[in-house]
Structures are given as structure tokens and as C-alpha cells.
Specification:
CATH superfamily of chain A: Ribokinase
Helix content of chain A: 25-40%
Radius of gyration of chain A: 19 Å
Largest interface: A-B, 55 and 56 residues
Strand order of the largest sheet of chain A: 5-4-1-8-9-10-11-12-13
Oligomer: homodimer
Number of domains of chain A: 1
Largest sheet of chain A: 9 strands, mixed
CATH topology of chain A: UDP-N-acetylmuramoyl-L-alanine:D-glutamate ligase
Chain lengths: ~325, ~325
């Protein structure tokens, strides 16, 4: 089951305590595709400038990613540079140059319009709405957003939510969107506005899936070394939707498939941070993700409860 | 299997966004006992001043808590007052008056010395060592500590660690103790100094148990309303050690018992924050904890992995 992703295709310059990378592949659509293509065919819509090293995207093509929707425009590609702090949980943005992304108007190629799964990366909510007008009737629409849009395009974002099945965002973002410190209340606020599911990403603390009457927690995978956190959230989304698409995103066993997908998202996202850019995905195989999923199971499963008898005998 | 706890028995004045409580029962030994006594007999050693409303501890006695080790000294009881911020994740200490606690020298009553499980609450590491000299040979020793001791009595704290099986502390504390941002590295650093297990408490993000070659994650229980977070960590410790004591703290199925105990600790701790002081424990029954444990299971269990066949058929 194919996945359409619309988002940024960028060049990043990143400094971490472990090294530096200059003008490497970045952007939400890039990280998403690298991750999701482990599981399902992916179709990308985005824009690059005439300075983009297009051949470096070849490894995505080799993984079955259809890049026909990447438009090449005159000018500079979206560029972001940032520096991570010692504990890697926070970072400073040094520079953001939108370049050709400033005038980006997504055009969904004819042969992408029947995509059953759609991921609206973290872009202007008006563009997200524009994408939804161009696709047929996807079985599952997921979207990401960020504080910038919550503050500057709130009305448009709320219109997007009406058409979204799964909203993915960070804990600070969902708190700001719903204006409440309680994640539970915030998730319910979102579900009252369209989405059936809210996935809250909490970085090293893992992720939570909220549904109307159940929820599911995944811890953060305990890594020996976090090398570069850039793109972890988009790789999480790629693993999550990839796993759902691989299973057919069917409604029948939705609960189980969604729970499993959160774990696949966590496992896939945990690989993103092990190297700069999307480099870890150049060699990553599904078997490695599967092994990490099995580890997640060991780290969260517990056997039966204390029996009253045991306790009374204490 | 009885549990000996040594810690503070205090009076707290607390302000939260939901109300105020003046001079109510507080202190690590109080919260620990209220929680652990759901599971096993508890013996308390501490000190109170002549201003302490002793009859308010009667509900602990009714739950099988032996208060023979609470010494009454001339002067004021340990008093703490604090104000929680809007999101309840942070607080300001308004006042701390040690009172009789400043000269506290734990004296373990003769009939407490055979306690098979010992919990050293968050007190001066020199006093923790003093307690260990007075007990026979406990099967399980657990200890808590805090930044204040990590900074001011580091050498003494390291001596305590040599005798401790389980160290419980917050994520910021273990990072400071081991001087590393990685929780995994920090836990290993601690295990190299004595403890076989490190339990890292992460507030709303749950708790992690680290052992030499495995680990276990529990999410924070998703509460509708957090009323007063005071004492949650000590109630967690009480539920954790209580569950272990109820099962006999046996080595045979140590892995399983420890995993289960982390969930029991999380479930028990989650009740502490539902009311001021230890008030929620006045009526709490084991069955309510058991139901929350069952909910934890639903929130973390996922069925089998994606099969390669499923993925190839995508």
C-alpha cells in the first residue's frame, strides 16, 4: 500500500558534540521517505533548488521511492543549520533560509493521486489543505505540525485537522495547540476537532498514541550514543505509517496494528539518530528494525499480577 | 516479609493550582509507609517534634505500620513548604525548617533489626550508613538520595552505594551523580559502584529499571488531574518495595518480580498525587492498585511483530 508524503527536501548543516556535517540531506520528506521505504512504496512531493545534489537522492530511488513529485525550481534549496547542546535534548537554530521552499505550491502528479496513505509533513497548513484537495480519497491521512504554524496559522491548522485521521506532534506542541498542561486533555481536545488518533512524540521519553477510549505507550529506545537527533521525529512518522501501510492500514484490527506501528516508529526513529543526516538508512535493513522491536517487547512486557493470596501471605 | 524504612516524618504546607494544605502529614518515611503498607508489614524509624499531631498517624498503625521507631524529641518537627507551578512539573520551596531532624540519629529498635527489606529514605548518607550498621543481614537494601547529598556528601554516598542492592533516584539526580547526560551510561556507572539495580524516576514520563544486562520501562500513569505531586516518588518506592516484599523478594524469579514491582510502584505512586498529603492512602485499597496495574498492561502490550511476508506483500 503506497504512501504519499509532502514535505521539505532540504540541505542541513549540523553541529553536535560528536562532529559536524555540512550541507547534507535533510528535510521532513527526506527523513520520512528514508524510513517509510523500509516497509512500503513511497511517493514524494517537494521542491529543491538548482543547487541540490540530486544524485544523492539515488539511494531513495533504489529503495522504491518515487521522486517524480520533486519539482526543481530556480534558486537556492531550503537550508537549515543548527547546533545541538551537550545533552542533545536541545538545540539552537543558527540559520534558516527558505529559498525555493518559500514559494512552494505542491503539485501532486496524476499517478500519485490514488495514494491510500498520505503524510502531510510539517509545512504551512494552507499547503496541507491544498494537498488534500488534489488527492482522491485516501484511507488514512496523517499530519505533522509545529509551534510556528500553531501560532501563525491557527485557523488554517484547525481546518486541516477536520480531514486528518492521525495527528503527530511533540508534547510541547500539543500542549500549546490545546492550551493545557495535561497531555491527556490536550489529546482529547485534538480528537474533538477531527483526528481519531493523536500521536505525541516525547523525544527520549518515547511516544504515546491516544485514541478515544484507549491509549498506548512506547518508551524511547535506550541508545548507547545519540549522534545527531535531526530527523528523528520524521523517521518515527515514516516507521509508524510504513508499518501501517505494510499491514494494509485496515480497520479490522486497527487497535493492534496501531500499537505495533508505534513501536515500529520508535524503533525506526531510533536508528535515525545514530548517524548524520539520513546516512544510517543507507544500509539499514528491516531485520535490524525487527530486532529492535523485539527488544522493545522485552523492555515493556511483564507477567501476571500479584495475586491476593500472595499479598495476604506476606 | 517486613520492610524497615528510615526517613523523614514531616509537616508540609503545600500550594498547588487546585488549593492549599497547611501543616499536613509529609516526609519520605510517611509517604513510603502509607504506600508499602498496602502490600506488607512496615516498620518506621524517624523523629518528630513535640508539635507533631501524633494521632494523625493512627491510620498508618491501623494498616499494620509499626511506629515504635518514631522518636519524639523536644522542639519543632521537620517542616517544609512549597508552591507548585501551573503545570505541576516544577515547584518552588518556600521554606525548610529541619527542627528536630537536624540532630536525628536513627536508633533501630531491637525488634526491627531482623527486617529482611530495608529502605533508606532520602537522608544524610552518614545516617544511611549508620542504619546499615544497626540491622542484621537484610535480603534487600534499597536507597533514595538527592542532589543535595550528591553535591555535599559525595564520598559518604559512594560508601552507601557499596551496600545497596537498588538505588532509586530521579533522572536529573543520576545524571548529576554519574556526570553524564546518558541515563544508560549513568545507570552503568552506579552499577559499577555496588547496586545491582538502578531505578530512575522520571515523573510524568514514568520510570526505568536498569540491571546489568536488561532493563524495563514503565510509563507514567495518565492521570486526569494531578492534584498535589508531593510524595509521589516515595509512594512509588513504597509500592515497588512493597510488591517485592509481598512476593518474598526471592532471587529465583527476580527479573519477573522486579518488572512487576516497577509497575506496582508506578500504579501506587499515581494515587499519591490525587489528593493532598497521604490522604488518598486513607481509603486506597489494593484492588484499586491492581486495576491500575491491569491498565498499565493494556497500555504497553503489543501483539506479535510484522511478518516479512506482510511487508513483502505491501
Amino acid at each position: 500500500m503506497s504512501i504519499l508524503v509532502v514535505g521539505s527536501v532540504a540541505l542541513d548543516s549540523v553541529e553536535t558534540p560528536f562532529g559536524e556535517a555540512e550541507r547534507v540531506l535533510g528535510g521532513s520528506a527526506t527523513f520520512f521517505s528514508a524510513a517509510a521505504s523500509l516497509f512500503a512504496p513511497v511517493r514524494v512531493v517537494g521542491v529543491i533548488g538548482d543547487d541540490y545534489p540530486v544524485d544523492r537522492l539515488d539511494f531513495l530511488r533504489a529503495r522504491g521511492v518515487d521522486l517524480d513529485g520533486i519539482e526543481k525550481a530556480e534558486g537556492e534549496s531550503f537550508f537549515w543549520s543548527g547546533r545541538y547542546h551537550y545533552d542533545l535534548n536541545s538545540r539552537d537554530t543558527l540559520e534558516t533560509r527558505l529559498g525555493v521552499f518559500a514559494d512552494f505550491r505542491p503539485r501532486i502528479p496524476e499517478h500519485f493521486r490514488d495514494s491510500p496513505v498520505v503524510f502531510l509533513g510539517n509545512i504551512d497548513p494552507e499547503l496541507q489543505l491544498d494537498v488534500l484537495r488534489q488527492v482522491d480519497s485516501p484511507r488514512l491521512v496523517a499530519a505533522d505540525t509545529m509551534n510556528f504554524w500553531i501560532e501563525s496559522k491557527r485557523a488554517e491548522l484547525l481546518r486541516v485537522l477536520e480531514h486528518v485521521d492521525v495527528l503527530l506532534l511533540n508534547d510541547s506542541e500539543v500542549r500549546e495547540l490545546a492550551d493545557t498542561p495535561s497531555l491527556l486533555d490536550a489529546a482529547r481536545w485534538v480528537m474533538d476537532r477531527g483526528p481519531r488518533y493523536v500521536v505525541v512524540k516525547k523525544g527520549e521519553h518515547g511516544a504515546v498514541l491516544y485514541a478515544r477510549d484507549w491509549m498506548f505507550f512506547a518508551p524511547g529506545y535506550p541508545l548507547e550514543r545519540v549522534f545527531d537527533p535531526t530527523g528523528a521525529g520524521d523517521a518515527f512518522a515514516g516507521g509508524f505509517l510504513g508499518a501501517l501501510a505494510a499491514e494494509g492500514a485496515h480497520e479490522g484490527e486497527a487497535h493492534e496494528a496501531l500499537r505495533r506501528a508505534i513501536i515500529y516508529g520508535s524503533a525506526t526513529g531510533s536508528f535515525a539518530v545514530e548517524d548524520f543526516s539520513v546516512d544510517r538508512f543507507r544500509t539499514l535493513e528491516l531485520g535490524e528494525v525487527e530486532r529492535r522491536v523485539a527488544e522493545f517487547r522485552k523492555m515493556t512486557t511483564f507477567e501476571h499480577e500479584l495475586t491476593a493470596a500472595t499479598v495476604e501471605g506476606a
